[in-house]
TrEMBL record, chains A, B:
Superkingdom field: Bacteria
Residues covered by the Fumarylacetoacetase-like C-terminal domain: 82-319
One example GO MF annotation: hydrolase activity
Name of the protein: Fumarylacetoacetate hydrolase
InterPro entries to which the protein is assigned, alphabetical: FAA_hydro_N, Fumarylacetoacetase-like_C, Fumarylacetoacetase_C_sf
Keyword tags: Hydrolase
Record-linked Gene3D superfamilies: Fumarylacetoacetase-like, C-terminal domain
Positions of the Fumarylacetoacetase N-terminal domain: 1-78
Length: 336, 336
């Protein structure tokens, strides 16, 4: 099933069930008002939501209304955890190669993750407010999952069973704040403003065979100012699957229902031709990666970061060509 | 007023108002069931809680019952944000001196903070489950505040107005996991398991003159296995006050109601005698600091980290000698 959260002026919005084709929706009132409530008691509540979903898909839900992603908050407008991985090692390799630093061998066995702020997420069509262009505004197109309870010391396989929903994320990053911040040694903080999520979050069965053991085998499209810059394959090059990412968190603590875990920037390796030249036909899921490639090839980056009023659209289509999660489609604006 | 959250089998527990002397409590049922609910609508709900608090203190609350901190969850059993500072630069200086690295000059102007996990906090008397003693188990005695909404780009003075409640924290740390984790460059993650908080959180007026512009001028006591190891002054040596810490978060994002912001390990400078020898008469608020001092003075640490079944008690008394927040009093146990 597909779930979304509609704006109603409250902090957590109203849970709605959305039809498979994203054309209609229905309030889940009477079942659960908020998505967190459903996650807290998933075994009891999700079958009721599933029933409503089927009625909606059959065109028989009496109070259905046209679905409008502009009315969406993030599926979880605020969450108890947002832990983001860097599961595509190719991205790490490129960024490090650009600054002439090697990728430590342990990075291939031990996931890199950071803890993000989760008190104030953006809806899929909300503006992205940033104080200054000079901060180096970048998008990061990612896949994210929402978990149920996963116990401390769970294995990656056990952690896979704890995945409830999948969605897309725009992990907005302020690149020019990152070097000084990481040099302080405590990780990202001011360089990661509010993250945005796709209009709907979907259960695993919606992905069909495209979901395979913690990886989504579909293409993540990123369109910057109307120009398609990324058509990245999210499946085969995901070094750590979502079960491994969740198990990484679980090493020393429980993961509780409603935790959001991100994949990090989806990234594909370049292709080296007979002439020895490498190209990246699948494009990029964040500008930093494009700039890293330019630095490796030309000695310096030429693509600039985002400006106020730039737009970014992030979407993923299923094997049937239909949008799975709806599109993240946002404008960067000056924070006032 | 003083607020706590009683265990009731649910994820968020039940909000109770606790008398000033911590002897009695009263359910806030009919006003607000959960502390987050009160924080979400503080202007409307807090005066009603305050009325109940006064009735309780006057011995006139009809359904009052004896307060028992063992029934407490963390005041916020799970939160939308837990951002912990390192506001006592003396602590940073000692830890860095022990590993012969300087404190960068910027650390005196720009707070050091990390984003912590907030989906699964521990109550004040809950056991601390850790998978292995070899992880290097340490306590960290801290002060923490809970905020209302604070807008992006707020000044430290504006941020001070956003502080709703104050409490104590035990930011449990796994020291032997830290070096490898920080070397990865993304900050703490597995080295910071679930944090515990004091039985009650209190409004600023409860601190009277001990609260001065974002600092708590009282002594934080840490007792390890029954031995008092820390009697640290929390006020004068707090390099960055809570308004500055919150404003640091606000540089690029909004801080939303129910965010918890920590001070980092409370730490006091040593005293150098006429013989040129430095001692630390106020003790320490985490073992890592004691070990840093030993390393600086003797070339190596001799105090070992905590073992399973060790206990740690963290408490702060007001000018009247009474416990302000109740005591964090926990046992370290092996996670199963």
């Amino acid at each position: 099933m597909k779930l979304a959260t509609y704006k109603d002026g409250s902090r957590d919005g109203q849970l709605v069930v959305v039809s498979r084709d994203l054309s209609t929706a229905h309030y889940a009132t009477g079942i659960a008002d908020k998505l967190q409530q459903a996650l807290d008691d998933w075994g009891f509540i999700s079958p009721q939501l599933q029933d409503l979903y089927e009625t909606l898909n059959n065109g028989k839900a009496r109070h259905a209304f046209p679905f409008d992603s502009r009315q969406c908050m993030a599926p979880l407008p605020r969450a108890y955890q947002w832990a983001d991985g860097s599961a595509y090692i190719n991205h790490v390799e490129l960024v490090r190669a650009a600054r002439k630093s090697d990728v430590p061998g342990t990075f291939y066995a031990d996931p890199l993750m950071y803890q993000g702020g989760s008190d104030d997420f953006l809806g899929a069509n909300d503006d992205v407010p940033v104080p200054k262009e000079a901060y180096g505004i970048d998008f990061e197109a990612e896949i994210a999952v929402i978990t149920g309870d996963v116990r401390m010391m769970s294995t990656p396989e056990q952690a896979l069973d704890g995945i409830r929903l999948v969605m897309l994320a725009n992990d907005v990053s302020l690149r020019n704040l990152i070097p000084d911040e990481l040099a302080k040694g405590f990780g990202f903080f001011q360089s990661k403003p509010a993250t945005a999520f796709s209009p709907v979050a979907v259960t695993l069965d919606e992905l069909g065979e495209s979901w395979d053991k913690g990886r989504v085998h579909l293409t993540l499209q990123s369109t910057w100012n109307g120009r398609k810059v990324g058509m990245c394959e999210a499946g085969p090059e995901m070094t750590f699957h979502f079960g491994q990412l969740i198990a990484h968190i679980c090493k020393t603590r429980n993961v509780r229902a409603g935790s959001i875990v991100g994949s990090g920037t989806v990234s594909n390796k370049g292709v080296t031709g007979a002439d020895g030249k490498t190209t990246w036909p699948k494009g990029y899921s964040c500008i930093a990666e494009k700039r890293a490639i330019e630095t490796i090839q030309d000695g310096k980056p030429t693509t600039e970061f985002m400006k106020f009023h730039d737009t970014i659209r992030i979407e993923m289509k299923g094997l049937d060509g239909q949008s799975v999660f709806g599109a993240i489609d946002q404008e960067i604006v000056e924070a006032k």
